[in-house]
Specification:
CATH architecture of the largest domain: Alpha-Beta Complex
Strand order of the largest sheet: 7-13-10-11
Shape: elongated
Strand content: 15-25%
Number of strands: 15
Number of domains: 2
Largest sheet: 4 strands, antiparallel
Distance between the termini: 29 Å
CATH superfamily of the largest domain: DNA methylase specificity domains
CATH topology of the largest domain: Adenine-n6-DNA-methyltransferase TaqI, Chain A, domain 2
Oligomer: single chain
Helix content: 10-25%
Order of helices and strands: EEEHEEEEEEEEEEHHEEH
CATH class of the largest domain: Alpha Beta
């Protein structure tokens, strides 16, 4: 079992660190978050904890089976509450993600580069080179705060910023089905619920979460 803090707009017990070498947030003295942190530490060390009555509305005990844990072997952190769905399959059942390689372009790789701001027009605004590629017809998904207008079908072959995920398919019919589903409100909500980072400033959905924890 694990302690989950119900963090919402009712209290802001933190401030962002201005030191780029320190990632995370600084807890404000005597804030609710500041009081919750030692309880979480006690639970991790001792496996049991008493929650003070004044904090019970902010803290709950959840079974591990009720959580989604980012299981990427190269990534540590991030625990999310599971969401219940009546039906759906993981996106990984339909496509590959970020799998395009330079070799797929028969010695004629793309020369145009797209960033997130270029997704709508698909007109390059900068000249750069990267190792992330897409082919015409792939679905492109911005990893930053997903919105409908940040999920598009590639109009050509491009190099891409690593902040854009590439979904590639075996056939157009399956691609079109997934594209329609990805832009629906319930799937957008799933993606936003799995964002990593500070949502007020910078947040992104990881490749691991998009591929394995988004149900359509």
């Amino acid at each position: 079992m694990i302690i989950i803090a119900k963090i919402g707009k009712t209290f802001l017990g933190y401030k962002f660190s201005t030191n780029r070498s320190k990632r995370g947030m600084v807890l404000v003295k005597n804030s609710i978050l500041g009081k919750i942190a030692p309880i979480s530490h006690q639970f991790i060390i001792k496996g049991k904890v008493d929650i003070p009555s004044e904090l019970k509305e902010y803290v709950s005990i959840r079974k591990l089976s009720d959580l989604i844990i980012n299981g990427d072997k190269n990534y540590i952190g991030d625990i999310y509450p599971k969401r219940q769905f009546k039906e759906g399959k993981n996106l990984s059942c339909y496509c590959k993600i970020n799998s395009r390689t330079e070799e797929e372009f028969n010695d004629n790789p793309p020369t145009e580069y797209l960033e997130i701001g270029d997704l709508q027009t698909q007109l390059p605004s900068k000249k750069k080179s990267t190792k992330r590629f897409c082919k015409k017809g792939d679905i492109l998904v911005s990893s930053l705060t997903p919105r409908k207008n940040q999920i598009v079908i590639a109009k050509g072959d491009f190099m891409l910023t690593s902040a854009i995920h590439v979904l590639s398919f075996d056939d157009d019919k399956r691609r079109d089905y997934v594209f329609e589903k990805l832009r629906q409100d319930d799937v957008i909500k799933q993606m936003n619920a799995l964002l990593d980072g500070f949502k007020a400033t910078y947040a992104k959905i990881s490749e691991q979460n998009l591929y394995n924890n988004i149900l359509i």
